[in-house]
Every structure is written in structure tokens, then in C-alpha cells.
TrEMBL record:
Belongs to the HAD-like hydrolase superfamily. CbbY/CbbZ/Gph/YieH family. Gene3D superfamilies: HAD superfamily/HAD-like (3.40.50.1000), Putative phosphatase, domain 2 (1.10.150.240). This is Beta-phosphoglucomutase family hydrolase. The keyword Hydrolase applies. Transmembrane segments: none annotated. Coiled coil: none annotated. Keywords: Hydrolase. PANTHER family: FRUCTOSE-1-PHOSPHATE PHOSPHATASE (PTHR43481), GLYCEROL-1-PHOSPHATE PHOSPHOHYDROLASE 1-RELATED (PTHR43481:SF4). InterPro entries: B-phosphoglucomutase_hydrolase, HAD-like_sf, HAD-like_SPP, HAD-SF_hydro_IA, HAD_2, HAD_sf, PGP-like_dom2. SUPFAM superfamilies: HAD-like. The keyword Nucleus does not apply.
Length: 199
């Protein structure tokens, strides 16, 4: 589809599944965690929770499946599995090409639901830091996607109004957060930019 970013002063990218191909790694870590704890591994539901911090997913999983696991134990085990494979993360070309094209001409940010530890590892591993003016992760906001706080903080740190920013996201949760922030949003699906949404 045609991507027209001319009218925006800032571009905010989600990280997992949008800027970097890490969602399969997160899902594999959840699958292994499900096997260990004995709950149902729901691939599509877990994918839809992209942008939600791991602790939030663990709590929602208990409600969804009627289980009573210690959310912190689920988080710790999922992170352990993810840490074993996280080095396999790679760039998504379609969105990173936009980063390269607009770097220096527009203000660029990452707004992710990943925690600071995971964000720092991925940003460092893929040398993303120099490309972005600011990076907002889950530890920096109290309300997470689909709430708008992540994107609103990113816009604030860029020194821009929400209406002057556009978001790239890969899940309905992320799109909802962008809309709630008053920002236009492009959807990324399987490494391709496929749809455009307005608030």
C-alpha cells in the first residue's frame, strides 16, 4: 500500500513484530512456559497481546483460562526461555527502510510494551539506538497498551503534539493505543504494511 508520511513531524514505531521480528521468539517462550506449567498455549490470543507487558499477559491468562498461577513465576519462566533465544531477533525490512529514509528529516521514536531489560538488549543487539530520538518502554509508564500512555510519552519526549505523529503497530492492541492517543496508525502484518487507521 502507499505510505504517505509527508504531513507528520514524528514517527513512532512499536518494537516487537513491527520494527523487529521477535514475536516468534516471544511466542516460542510462551509455548515452552505453557508446557512447563500445564496451561493451554493459545497462539493467536498471545500474539494479539503484543504490546502488553509480560506480567499483564500472565494476569490475563489466569482470568481467561480460570487458572491460579503465580503471575510472577510465569513471567520469570517466560523470560528465562526468551533469554535463551532472544539473540535470534532480526530487523523487519519494511519498517526499518522507513527509519532509514526519514532519519534526520523527522523525529523518530520507539514505543514498546517490552520491559526495559528486553528493550535494551534488542536495541543494543541490532544497533538501533543511533536511529531514534527517544525510546519508551513498559517500565516508563503505568498504563500500558491499549491505553495511550506509551505513545503520548513518546510524543512528549519528541517535543511534538500527538496529531503530528504517526504510529506503526502490528496488533489490534497497539492500534487501539494509537487511536486513543489521537494518532494515525499503520498496521504491520507479517513484515508488510497493510492497513491505515485514523483515531
Amino acid at each position: 500500500m502507499k505510505i504517505d508520511l509527508q504531513r507528520y513531524q514524528g514517527i513512532i514505531f512499536d518494537m516487537d513484530g513491527t520494527l523487529v521480528d521477535s514475536m516468534p521468539l516471544h511466542l516460542k517462550a510462551w509455548q515452552l512456559t505453557a508446557q512447563q506449567f500445564g496451561f493451554d498455549y493459545e497462539h493467536d490470543w498471545l500474539y494479539s497481546k503484543g504490546g502488553t507487558p509480560t506480567l499483564g499477559i500472565a494476569k490475563q491468562l489466569n482470568v481467561r483460562q480460570g487458572t491460579n498461577f503465580d503471575p510472577q513465576q510465569l513471567v520469570q519462566q517466560k523470560r528465562t526461555y526468551f533469554d535463551q533465544i532472544r539473540h535470534q531477533v532480526s530487523i523487519i525490512d519494511a519498517t526499518f527502510e522507513l527509519v532509514k529514509v526519514h532519519h534526520g528529516a523527522k523525529k523518530l521514536a520507539i514505543g514498546t510494551g517490552a520491559d526495559g531489560r528486553t528493550t535494551d538488549f534488542i536495541v543494543s543487539t541490532l544497533a538501533l539506538g543511533p536511529w531514534f530520538d527517544t525510546i519508551v518502554h513498559a517500565d516508563q509508564v503505568s498504563a500500558h497498551k491499549p491505553e495511550p500512555d506509551t505513545f503520548l510519552l513518546a510524543a512528549k519526549q519528541l517535543g511534538l503534539e500527538p496529531k503530528d505523529c504517526v504510529v506503526f503497530e502490528d496488533t489490534a492492541t497497539g492500534v487501539a493505543a494509537a487511536k486513543a492517543a489521537g494518532m494515525d496508525c499503520y498496521l504491520v502484518e507479517q513484515g508488510r504494511i497493510t492497513q491505515f487507521f485514523t483515531p
